[in-house]
Amino acid sequence: MADTEKQPQHPHIELKVNHHHNHHHHLSISKNESNLKNQSSLSIILTEIHAGYFRISLSLSIQSLLWKILIEPIKDAHFLRHIFTLIPSTALTFLWSLALFTLLTLSFLYLLKCLLHFDKVKDEFSNQIGVNYMFAPWISWLLLLESSPIVPPATLHYKILWLVFVAPIVILDVKIYGQWFTKGNMFLSMVANPTSQMSVVGNLVAAQAAAEMGWKESGICFFSLGIVHYLVLFVTLYQRLPGNNKIPAMLRPVFFLFFAAPSMASLAWHSVCGYFDTASKMLFFLSLFLFLSLVSRPLLFKKSMKKFSVAWWAYSFPLTALAIASTQYAHEVKGIMAHVIMLVLSLISVLVCLMLMIVSALNIRVPVKAHKHISKETNNIAAI
């Protein structure tokens, strides 16, 4: 009887209170779960994104430049060149808009990473591979500026934007090129790898964009800065010094940068001179030879192709740069063989870019770690 008397005598009231408490308890868990999901997903995205993702915007930007050149009407053009004039101008506008949207999105996410995870950005800047892709966003902006359907090169807006986009390239030049001959552990022979050519490409694209708007002296300045360092870098990489062996198997697509640099040098000198002279042709033939040397060794890229990676986008930019150089060469030579090379390289470039867009879209996935983190936090909240 004593035990019975100690038990609560108001079961209905207690049930009502517990029901009310549980209702708010579950609402609180749902709300916290939603907040944790948003915070965790964004945090994981910012942690995992790196400057190498700008390969995507780099490829789309130069692809829009290729399309702009191909659909441009030319007097006395070869009949093979007329095939590309069938491409509507709206296709170029769509591609340019897609490249701009991609670049804005990546720039916004990377800016957030700089604000929220600056320590990881510093680690990336200290990495001998990651630091070279710091040039990629600025190269993308310059290529978008060149291919823009709304900003002609002669306008004041073009010149101001060129100055804004070139300033970070100059700062990075001073930082990286200065380290190559002043710091013992950062000598070129110690840190050289294929991605080091991104610094060269940045200067050559800046030279091309400057020459297009009539600033010949600025074009020559950036061209000389890029081509001199390219010659030193090419010899260093050709000798297979220690830095060459520090590229993981998954990053081997960056070997395509070997022919991206001479292709951009050919285009830059063409813009400076105003026509495709002997020097431009020599650089084009060098890039074509390096391209054939790489594609004839498919086993070199076997391991990197087993699983999709953003490094696959490293194939697109060099191919497109070579395709653009071939269009300028064909326009100067006007021979059937030159136009066949232009047609083949342009089609390969477009197909590779299209394939990469499809494969990338199919491999987009929500971070899994966020859901695990949410479940753990939810269980902790429920246990309170």
From TrEMBL:
Q: Where is it located?
A: Cell membrane
Q: Which residues cross the membrane?
A: 83-110, 160-180, 220-238, 250-270, 282-300, 312-330, 336-362
Report the Pfam families cross-referenced here: SLAC1
Which GO MF term does the entry hold, naming one?
Answer: voltage-gated monoatomic anion channel activity
Alphabetic keyword roster: Cell membrane, Ion transport, Membrane, Transmembrane, Transmembrane helix, Transport
Enumerate the InterPro entries for this protein.
SLAC/SLAH (IPR030183), SLAC1/Mae1/Ssu1/TehA (IPR004695), Voltage-dep_anion_channel_sf (IPR038665)
GO CC terms in record: plasma membrane
Keyword Transcription on this protein?
no
Q: Name one GO biological process term.
A: intracellular monoatomic ion homeostasis
Keyword Membrane belongs to the record: yes
The record gives the membrane topology as:
Multi-pass membrane protein
Where mainly found? membrane
Q: Which family does it belong to?
A: Belongs to the SLAC1 S-type anion channel family.
Under the heading PANTHER family, the entry gives: OS01G0247700 PROTEIN, S-TYPE ANION CHANNEL SLAH3
Report quaternary structure and partners: Homotrimer.
**Record's function text:** Slow, weak voltage-dependent S-type anion efflux channel involved in maintenance of anion homeostasis.
Q: Could you tell me what this protein is called? A: S-type anion channel SLAH1
Task: Tell me the organism.
Answer: Vicia faba (Broad bean)
